Amino acid sequence: MSTNEQKRLSQEITPKAVFERRRDLIKHAAAGAFGLALAPWFSREALASNAQKLIATPNPNFVLKEESTSYQYVTGYNNFYEFGTDKSDPAANAHSLQTRPWTVSIEGLVKKPMTLDIDALLKLAPMEERIYRMRCVEGWSMVIPWDGYSLSKLLNQVQPLGSAKYVEFITLADRKQMPGLKSQIIDWPYREGLRLDEAMNPLTLLTFGLYGETLPKQNGAPVRIVVPWKYGFKSAKSIVKIRLTEEMPKTSWSQFDAREYGFYSNVNPLVDHPRWSQATERRIGDSKGGFAPKIKTQMFNGYGDQVASMYAGMDLKKFY
Q1: How does this chain assemble (predicted)?
Q2: Which residues contact 6 (CB under 8 A, 6 or more apart)?
Q3: I need a labelling partner for 103 at 20 to 30 A (CA). Which of 35, 170, 252, 276 fits?
Q4: Structural domains of the chain in order of their starting residue, each with its CATH number
């Protein structure tokens, strides 16, 4: 992000609490006598965000001491190439995404394949709030309060067969809704994958919201996964199909350039990207702006206690 862009975003930044108080003020004003004359304006403001509240219980195991990244940065600085390659493109263009009706099929090597609509998915398990670090392969990071439940809750419903070793995620690719598909950067639809044990790890979150509201469209609405110990591109957005396979699935960025983007893509400060170091990261939204010192990247993004055993004995330089 350029210095000018950082300055602009810093000027526009609004803490989430202030954002919510402002929205409540708008709603109350619109309902009162004072609001009668201004009701049309207030109504437009109140409806400017289509996000709905999600009832999620904070999980005490995932409460970080680090300050959460502002809502505005989380929703305004994104990689979602289906809506454009600039960081501001998803927020500018994702309004065209229709998130209802929406279904996700779970198929492949499972005993009980099924297709669930978004309402059934929302009700499948209790919703949790988990505050996770998010580390992008590009060298920047955020801290985000996500809402969802462990992906294992869904996978257990379909009963994976003994031959299933991998889980493939396929996301929506609709040229009518997604202007970025006009580019030929990758072979659409976007595909990602995990080993089955990675997918079943309790940390892997089937995610429906952030900051206590339904996912903004630019963040992968209506349903995505979040895999916090891997680089951000492994967390597929706007998922329409989950397929269990015996063979390692081909993934979009690995097909683009396998030398730069491996299948595992675990956050690892000891293995540099071919074009830059991964030892440090820049925390988006730091109050010091572009002058903020970089922070050291943690192995597995700080989640080693929960995930390192899955890679015991593996050469993580070879299986990057």
Answers
A1: Heterodimer of a catalytic subunit (MsrP) and a heme-binding subunit (MsrQ).
A2: 289, 290
A3: 252
A4: 1-47 (no CATH), 48-311 (3.90.420.10)
DSSP code at position 276: B
In tens, the pLDDT along 146-205 reads 999 999 999 999 999 999 999 999 999 999 999 999 998 899 999 999 999 999 999 999
What is d(CA 161, CA 158) in angstroms, rounded to the nearest whole number? 9
Q: Tell me the pTM.
A: 0.84
Return binding residues. 78, 81-82, 136, 171, 219, 224, 235-237
Structure confidence by residue, pLDDT tens digits, 271-288: 999 999 999 999 999 877
Alpha-carbon distances, residue 168 vs 102, 227, 255, 263 (angstroms): 19, 14, 14, 11
